[in-house]
Amino acid sequence: MSITTDPTVTIATRSATEPVGPAPLRFAAGLALVAFPVLFTAGIATSPPQASDASRDYVASLGADPALTALSAGLLHYSWVAFALGVLAIIGLVRGPRGRVVVPLAAVVTSFSAIQLSGLLAYDWFIGAAANTVPLDQATTIFDTAVADPWVATWLVSGRLVGFVGIPLVIAALARAGVVSWWLLLAPVIGFAGFVVPVPFGILAGMALSVAPMIVVGARLLQRSSARVRREEIAAS
Prior knowledge:
Layout: H1 7-17, H2 24-45, H3 55-64, H4 66-87, H5 102-120, H6 122-131, H7 136-148, H8 150-176, H9 186-192, H10 202-211, H11 213-224, H12 227-236
Organism: Actinomycetospora rhizophila
Keywords: Membrane, Transmembrane, Transmembrane helix
Transmembrane segments: 27-47, 67-94, 101-123, 152-172, 179-197, 203-222
């Protein structure tokens, strides 16, 4: 007489005994978030110096050293690409009821904003080329006209939200979920002081400090990508 087995029991037993490997996408996202502050800080450090915040001086600075402009814009562009791709994975760090709404919201909003910001870096090449192709006054007029367009203005505002609001929002959301400490919020708060305190390299140091917490978030993703952690997550589910 044959003995039949419940197929659901067989499936459950098989899934429980199957080997569990590391999570490659989570690992890649962790690396991206760790790389983001490094690339961003390097991009800020190599930004062409300008005499003032006036449009004319900004355009002149981009045209003065095309190689430096390209290096800085490239580093900044790929820093935000890394952020936009990596930040979506923080949703997987939530392990309880807390943060299940705010963490996905923060991830999607800041990823969209970073995509906006990464695309804006393209005009560094174009304005730099314009500064070396036409008279400086004409190049400045081109820049001012483009920035004044409502589409570009909206692009700028939505992109800048990452730096001033997005990263603190991500940290606060993850702290609410118990993934990171609330103390990490001090980094962007203190970092913003670099914009108003007149000290040498204050802006560079402030920007670097503001984005540094993402290294901690990236490290959390790297830890959660291991096969051991995945087995524990499956066993707890």
